Amino acid sequence: MQKEFTSDQHQFRQSLARFMQAKSTPVDVRRQMLTEQGYDAEVWQQLCAELGVAGIHIPEQYGGFGFGQIELGIVMEEMGKNLFCGPFLASSVMASSALLHCASEAYKEQLLPDIAMGVSIVTLVLDSLDGPEDVGSLLHEDGGVLNGAAKIVLDAASADLMLVVASSSSGLGLFLVRANDTGVNVTSRESLDPTRKLSEVALINVSAQRVGDVDLGNLREIWRDCSVALAHEMVGGAQHLLTSTVEYTKLRVQFGRPIGSFQALKHRCADLLMEVEFARAATYHAARLLDVGNAAGLAAVNESEAEVYAPHMAKALAADTYCNVARAAVQLRGGIGFTWEDDTHLWFKRAKSSEVLLGGPDRHREWMMQLIEGEVS
Amino acid sequence: MNHNDIKQEVTGWLEQNWSTELSLLEWRNRLLEGGWAAPNWPVESLGRGYSVDETQVVNDVFRRLGIVFASQGGPRRLAAETILAHGNDEQKQRYLKQTLTGEHAWCQLFSEPGSGSDLAGSSTKAEKRDGRWIINGQKVWTTSAHHADYGILLARSDWDLPKHQGLSYFLIDMHQPGVEVRPLRQMNGHASFNEVFMTDAEVSFDDLLGGEGNGWAVAASTLSVERRGFAQARQSGISSVERVGRVYDEYEAELAIDNEPYTWYPQRQGRVDLVLDRAKKTGAIASASTRQEIAKLLSMKRASELAAEQAEATRRAGTNEIIPAGSIGKLAASVIARQAAHVHTLISGSDAMLSGEHSAESGMVAETLISVPAISIAGGTDEIQRNIISERVLGMPKEQRSDTGPFRDIKRNT
User: Fold this and answer.
1) Average pLDDT over chain B, rounded to an integer
2) DSSP 3-state assignment of A43?
3) Are B389 and B327 in contact (CB under 8 A)?
4) How far apart are CA A285 and CA A318, in angstroms?
């Protein structure tokens, strides 16, 4: 299994980094976070056209570039470093994962190419973002008609299409709904992280097409893919905060010396570096394992390297690390770190939001333990 | 050289020379004569001038066939490599052969009660008197001093120079009236180290290594050998060849002495290997809070392995970037050991009050709980590691120093 990035992957990362540094500065982020949609459609189109990110991991037969979780991870990590505002997580990661794992061939062919081009924004409507076991209690389908609500949906305000996981007489199903269909009510919600746009989606007698069957097994696979992608975003954000904080301590002078020369700060930064490196190693590893699994057929993740818990380990480590680094990033800046003017809070809020999205670290550790016990016994 | 040629040559030589009925000393003298005792050493110094990779080819053959190596145990190797690097011809002649055969055992006389993390703050006195060096002072944490014939010694030969410049490096005979070795009992009951008291101990002028005032540079090279040793020890494999015969018996006896100080070392790492089985056996695995702590432990352990593997892969790829994962391994081991001790305590509950062979895992859990504090001290404290990481990897400014100027005037322990 691959341990190092290839030179192509390095180059891809560098291209992305250049784009992000040009188009996703803190000034851009602050401008977009005040809008309802939350992103600049022109920049999004440019990113999709120039670097093909929206379909980077979507198989070529469905109009994507056919790369794997490693490349997807590179995109998420670079976006996370720069707090890129856009529907990538909702549409390219979560919705396309649901389609790839659950949809019939016809629907994959119908929906994935537009996602891969970035021209269609699709969001996944789940009535719980805490864990696969909790999904399906608030949204129901009966006779081709959906009812119920999801309290938190990513980027619903800008989505053209919605994929709804709902319970039905034949078990859980994945249903396709158009955002402007009658009975689809999208209400923007105030989010702790203003760079992540959240809405409540209420469905009242909405007629829907069933695009595939969902069970706990493939719901868990969706969860794993998305958790690993999100872990990359968190590692990128944590790395940005660590770097910027260390730079700050080298410049800020108190008591006649740079505060970065005080051991109290140096030791905290050394500990954070270790955490970031661990989270990064676990996250890259999880992506590589998923690729091995995906290459052997999506269901084979289980057998691939007897480390099925790796995605959960990555998500839990990345979440704890990002939050720890974010706390330190505010603390080590002192008063300025708590101001609105300083940019640190933008990442702090993303850290907090990502910590609980798709289940907090405690849930991921519990899943990890269940998988480990399953393997050992 | 072509690796196949090396393999053929060493295999052919072994067919002619290796016999399990030789004594250990006879065997190692043959090894020396054949030039296979230290193939990576220069041709003029008992070796063959092989590269790391070429030496690896030889070592692989030895391991596969279950051949006994030249003596490389702990302090012996430190002494031999340092003498090889800094010794004059006469010193190499005098010490290297019998160190490789195992006839001479060594100990490392560096740490002192007054200078631990601050190794260059050594205040052991070396004075020239009556045509020899006279040594006075105390060393501590000296592994295997009670078995040692010689010691590599760092001492202060000039008190008027700045701290790092007034040190010299000596080879000292441990069998003399001025040297007293006392076992040092640790908080876990073991006595794996010694205190060494030197009272007018003598060192001949010929046993100054690397020149007067050059002790810090020589000591630094010993320390780098030591660090490389930590990395290499993990790679050594064990051959499945059946070990019967005189040479093996004598080798086992040597190993037993060499390894005796280290029986509790797995315990100071936290015994992560015991955690899952114990949690199941005791039923502690049913506790949600304990499960969380186990998962945190296993995550840290696995992530530290992955970080080390990826650092190694990056190093092999030949990039020049600083690889933080390499320097955080030592700190990681401390964090993992502490979390493991915490988890073992959760699993034991009040049974953690017990120790000895009737306690959990025949006493291994109790020994773990009282051995883990060593891991964050030995070989450089966590605090020193954090200084190194923050300064060398993160590039943070150094602490302002207050130990400049003549050593005599620097505040120190009395």
Assistant:
1) 92
2) helix
3) yes
4) 13
Q: Does B318 touch chain A (CB under 8 A)?
A: no
Other Cβ atoms closer than 10 A to A73: 29
Separation between Cα atoms, residue A135 and residue B261, nearest integer Å: 56
Contact (Cβ atoms closer than 8 angstroms) between residue B102 and residue B75? no
Domains of chain B with bracketed CATH? 76-232 (2.40.110.10), 264-393 (1.20.140.10)
- Residue B196: strand pairing partners: B139, B181
Tell me the per-residue pLDDT of A118-134, one tens digit each, with 9 for 90 and over.
Answer: 999 999 999 999 999 99
Q: What is the pLDDT of residues B42-82, one digit of tens each?
A: 999 999 999 988 999 999 999 999 999 998 777 899 999 99
**How many A/B residue pairs have CB atoms within 8 Å?**
124
Which residues in B378-387 are b (16+ Cβ under 10 Å) and which e? Answer: eebbbbbbbb
| Structural contact between residues A235 and A276, judged by C-beta atoms closer than 8 angstroms | yes
Structural contact between residues A127 and A139, judged by C-beta atoms closer than 8 angstroms: yes
Q: Which two tokens stand for residue B211?
A: 């020149």
Question: In this structure, what is the dihedral angle of CA atoms A69, A73, A76, A78, given to the nearest 10 degrees?
Answer: -150
For A195-251, the pLDDT digits (tens) are: 999 999 999 999 999 999 999 999 999 999 999 999 999 999 999 999 999 999 999
d(C-alpha A53, C-alpha A65), whole Å: 9
Rounded to the nearest 10 degrees, the angle between the axes of helix A361-376 and helix B288-316 is: 90
Using an 8 Å CB-CB cutoff, list chain A residues near B393: 270, 273
Q: Which of A250, A270, A278 has its CB closest to that of B303?
A: A278
Is B307's CB within 8 Å of A278's CB? Answer: yes
Cβ proximity of B149 and B104 under 8 Å: yes
Shortest Cα–Cα distance, A306 to chain B (Å): 13
Q: What is the dihedral of CA B112, B117, B121, B125, to 10 degrees?
A: 10
Q: Mind listing the pLDDT tens digit for each residue in B266-288?
A: 999 999 999 999 999 999 999 99
With contacts defined as CB-CB under 8 Å, which chain A residues touch B396?
Answer: 246, 249-250, 260-261, 265-266, 269
Closest CA–CA distance from residue A338 to any residue of chain B (Å): 23
**Closest-CA residue in chain B for A278?**
B303
Question: Nearest CA to CA, how far is A298 from chain B (Å)?
Answer: 24
**Residue A21 CB contacts under 8 Å (≥ 6 apart), including other chains:** A82
Cross-chain residue pair A266–B294, CB shorter than 8 Å: no
CA B317 – CA B311 distance, rounded (Å): 10
Global pTM reads 0.91
Name the residue of chain A whose CA is nearest to B397's CA: A261
Q: Rounded distance, CA B339 to CA B337, Å?
A: 5
Residue A8 CB coordination number (10 Å): 10
Q: Do B295 and A316 touch (CB under 8 A)?
A: yes
CB contact, 8 Å: B302 with chain A? yes
Domains of chain A, start order: 7-117 (1.10.540.10), 122-213 (2.40.110.10), 216-376 (1.20.140.10)
B242 vs A294: which has the higher pLDDT: B242
Q: Do A369 and B309 touch (CB under 8 A)?
A: no
**Exposure string for B236-274, b = 16+ CB within 10 A, e = fewer:** eeeeeeeeeeebbebbeebeeebeebeebebbbbbbbeb
- Which residue reads 């993390």 in tokens? B117
Whether A261 sits inside 8 A of B399 (CB atoms) is: yes
How far apart, in whole angstroms, are the C-alpha atoms of residue B53 and residue B55? 5
Q: Which residues of B touch A277 (CB under 8 A)?
A: 307, 324-325, 328
- Say how many CA atoms lie within 13 Å of A240 toward its Cβ: 27
**Beta-carbon separation of A250 and B395 below 8 A:** yes
Is A278's CB within 8 Å of B331's CB? no
